[in-house]
Amino acid sequence: VLHLTGLLLGGAGMVGTLAATAMPQWRVSAFVDGNIVVFETVWEGLWMDCVSQLGLRLQCKFYDSVLALPPPLEALRALMCAASALAPLAFLAATAGLTRGQRGPRALGAFIPAAGLAFLLTGALVLIPVSWTGAAIVRDFYDPAVPGPLKRELGAALYVGWGSGALLLAAGAVFCRSC
């Protein structure tokens, strides 16, 4: 039962990691300065920027060049890509450990501890860029030198990332504890 719980937590964390990596809502335009009439909502993600006009029309544009990206965005992309690659590997190791575990406790071998460590590492790889982005958004929001139209709020992808990071860490703890 404990291994199955860890597998479910890890699977949900893996899906959340992949979703957070692909979502364009990392940074969302903020409504500040008492301006109630807003015609555009801007979403900034790891791969593209999107503009929603009056909630009716959505235009998204991928970033033109990888070389033109700011270094922090390149680092965020790299960490999330590493997490997106490691999460399915951890899930496969956990699945392999559970299927071998049906043959007896000695058949578990190194799969369950490896899956636990991989889930823990993946959780850390997700939480670092998500928390880094969240801290930068909060810092810029309260900075008086940043103009109102350039202020951003926390987007849905950050909340998905925090949730999936927590699920991955919980799955890793379950698998490491069961060894």
Architecture overview:
This is Claudin. It comes from Brachypodius melanocephalos (black-headed bulbul). It is a multi-pass membrane protein. It is a single chain. The chain is an alpha+beta fold and 179 residues long. 59% of the residues lie in helices and 13% in strands. The protein is built from four helices and five strands. It has helices at residues 2-22, 71-101, 111-141, 156-178; strands at 27-29, 40-44, 48-53, 57-62, 152-154. β3 (48-53) and β4 (57-62) form a beta hairpin. It starts with a helix and ends with a helix. The model has no long low-confidence stretch (mean pLDDT 88).
Summarize this structure as a short list of keywords or feature phrases.
Butyryl-CoA Dehydrogenase, subunit A, domain 3, 5 strands, 179 residues, 4 helices, elongated, 5-stranded antiparallel β-sheet, alpha+beta
